[in-house]
Amino acid sequence: MRKLLIILGVPIDNLTMDEALNRIEEFIEIGRKTGKTHQIATVNADFAVKASHDPELRYLLQESDMATADGMPLVWGARLLGMPVPERVTGADMVPALAERAAKKGYTVYMLGAAPGIAVRAAEILTNRHPGLQVVGTVSPPYGSILEMDRAIIDDIKEKRPDILLVALGNPKQEKWIGMYGREVGSPVAIGIGGTLDFIAGQTKRAPEWMQKSGTEWIYRLFQEPKRMWKRYVNDLVGFSSFFTRQWLLMRQGGNQQPVLPKSDLIVFENKAIISLEGRIDFNNYTNVTQKGQLALQETPFLDFDLTNATFLDSSAMGALVALAKQARDGGGDLRLINVPPIIYRALKLLKLDRFFDIIAAGDNDKATESDTADQPKSEKTANKWLVVPIPKRFDATTSSEILELCSQKLGENPNMILDFAETKFLASAGLAIMAQLNRTAQDKNGAIRLANCSPDVTRVIEMVKFNTIFPMFSDIPAAMR
Ligand code: UDP
């Protein structure tokens, strides 16, 4: 079971490089059998800061199958929060180590990204170092938006179906690319590796080991690329330290209480498990929650955690809930939090997990039933000349083709459509690509597409790609119909 810690809303796996590599081997075995793509991210302070402004990136990291601590600030942060992470697990170290295992075990590798010629050189260097390593493809796509990615590249990866897909497009582009196309290409493992191919190819030099270990590698990179890096580092320093300080102060509030061994009752009925937590859950006792959750997941993927009597959850306890939620969602269910006390709600909100979990008040059964079915597109309503199509809870690669099919068909009947985002928690690049496609279809038929009821996160994702200049946005359906 994963041991996760939440820093700045991003889950970090508490593991060593060796454990990470072993887990990747497990992912390859599972993926080969089931066709599932496992998304892996190597997280540094820059990721964490970006994720605090970018809901799509944050959600992708929260839902990733493995997120390692790539940067020393994450390792220090984890230690300050009372959860000792054993070491840095960087992409730059992981890829060469993985190449060695791949050569031994016969895993195929595909390299996507970096400037022209870099991936080819990196592949040559790695195959010389590890004879038998099979690099089945290297592609350097032109820089630009992932919404306009060349289909031929996707088809090539799909055809070769590598065991390990290394995506070197920089963060957050690589994470969004994997979120958008990972399912389609079907590689068991897809890893966002940033500038790792440049390091392997010798295009950029890595700092000496003592600098890597002491957390001063950034100074070395700053001297190598001062123009590009100084802004990033100032931004990261300010963003990371201010957000982290808020998290640390909040977590300390809970530190005044005496740790109580949680009494977690587990009841299973009608395909739903309810686990009641009591007292303070932290690094000392969170495994109790994990174990109860695991037991429940053997019975059903629908878990409710009743927090009525919980007094505090630290970063590792929240990490345990995120890991269980991920497992429940992978199994077709979900994890909800019931009756969350104010102090815990404040911490969830600060770490932006209030949008990750369904949080409901006890007895709020209407809402509960609604959220159970919120993943399927529902039937549309027509009023005046507008056709209203409710968008489901997530508009990403898991739902995009279904929504495209439904909306394309409806646009044939009526080219004026309102997409109702009232239920939508997560809008990703795959959804944005469908919206652009629907807009073209509507315009070809002299119609229009309007958006209504967008949450702040959905609005932010739309604004980040400037789609608010294409789609008129309205606060609710009546306003959109006017
Ligand atoms: N890159 C790319 N396409 C893009 C943006 C970046 O192939 O649209 C490559 C870039 O050439 C480099 C890698 O992505 O090899 C990592 O970029 P960056 O240095 O920004 O990432 P970092 O590791 O510093 O986050």
Going across the biggest sheet, name each strand in turn.
Answer: 4-3-8-7-5-6
Number of helices: 20
- Please tally the β strands and state the result: 20
Assigned CATH architecture of the largest domain: 3-Layer(aba) Sandwich
User: What is the residue-mean pLDDT, rounded to a whole number?
Assistant: 91
Low-confidence blocks of residues: 365-373
Please report which band the strand proportion falls in: under 5%, 5-15%, 15-25%, 25-35%, 35-45% or over 45%.
Answer: 15-25%
Bound molecules: uridine-5'-diphosphate
Helix content: 40-55%
Domain module count: 3
Provide the CATH top-level class of the largest domain: Alpha Beta
**What does the overall shape look like?**
globular
CATH topology of the largest domain: Rossmann fold
Structural class: alpha/beta
Largest sheet: 6 strands, parallel
Distance between the termini: 52 Å
**Cα-based radius of gyration, to the nearest Å:** 23 Å
Characterise the protein shown here.
By secondary structure, the chain is of the alpha/beta class. It has helices at 17-34, 45-53, 55-62, 72-80, 91-105, 118-129, 151-160, 173-185, 196-201, 209-214, 217-224, 226-255, 286-299, 315-330, 342-350, 365-372, 400-413, 429-444, 456-464, 477-481, and strands spanning 4-7, 10-13, 38-43, 66-69, 108-113, 134-139, 164-168, 189-192, 265-269, 272-281, 302-313, 334-338, 358-360, 381-383, 386-390, 394-395, 416-420, 426-427, 448-452, 473-474. It has 20 helices and 20 strands. Strands 4-3-8-7-5-6 form a six-stranded parallel sheet, sandwiched between helices. It is globular. Bound molecules: uridine-5'-diphosphate. Uridine-5'-diphosphate binds at residues 113-115, 143, 168-171, 173, 194-195, 197-198.
